[in-house]
Amino acid sequence: AGDPQGPVGVPDSSVPQDWEQRQEEDTLLIERILLLVRNVLHVPPEPAEEQQGVDGDASVHDRVLWALHISGMDDLLKFLASAQVEQQWALHVLEIISLMFRDQSPEELAALGQGTAGAEHGEDTRELESLRQRELAEKRARALQRPSRHSRFGGSYVLQGLKSIGERDVVFHKGLHNV
């Protein structure tokens, strides 16, 4: 009942195959598919053919990348790149990814990654700056409205011409109106 082989020794297609138990043919098939994707992406662009389209038109390379995305191949490549048990395909996947980004400059990629995030960050920064300015203005207004507290200590005064016990001038620690 649990035998994946049919009665004559032919594999039964109704029993799902465990991919950890791959046969040599499956491994070769995966490698051939990865090499095919690499070879398709490796085709250099033809400038004459690229200029025939409208300026905003996607290049052939971009259309191939879009087809890979629609087919789900990009998700499979991400899986192969991140799965620990699929390390044998790491260099193939790395080469495919580098070919995917071959026409892009690092500045363009960084700007795309920050597209909405960069705009939102700038908006957040402006909003925070306006809140900070408003808070400082309120703080200044409160400082002007608050009556200044009077210190009980009015200062020290030296009364010249009036001698103390030690033949020095008198030092007075209260306001002069009580003298």
Describe what this molecule looks like in 3D.
Residues 1-22 are annotated as: Disordered. α1 (24-42) runs parallel beside α5. The chain has helices at residues 24-42, 47-51, 60-71, 73-82, 90-100, 106-113, 115-145; strands at 157-163, 169-172. It has a domain at 17-44 and 59-105. The N and C termini lie far apart (116 Å). 54% of the residues lie in helices and 6% in strands. With 179 residues, the protein is mainly α. A hairpin with a 5-residue loop joins β1 (157-163) and β2.
Short description:
The protein is mainly alpha-helical. It has helices at 24-42, 47-51, 60-71, 73-82, 90-100, 106-113, 115-145; strands spanning 157-163, 169-172.
Which helices and strands occur, and which strands form pairs?
Blueprint (H helix, E strand, L loop, with lengths): L23 H19 L4 H5 L8 H12 L1 H10 L7 H11 L5 H8 L1 H31 L11 E7 L5 E4 L7
Antiparallel strand pairs: 1-2
Helix pairs in contact: 1-5, 4-5
The DSSP helix count reads 7
Secondary-structure-based class equals mainly alpha
Helix content: 40-55%
Strand order in the largest sheet: 1-2
Major beta sheet summary: 2 strands, antiparallel
Query: Which geometry do the CA atoms define?
Result: elongated
Q: Specify Rg, calculated over alpha carbons.
A: 40 Å
Structural key phrases:
54% helix; 179 residues; single chain
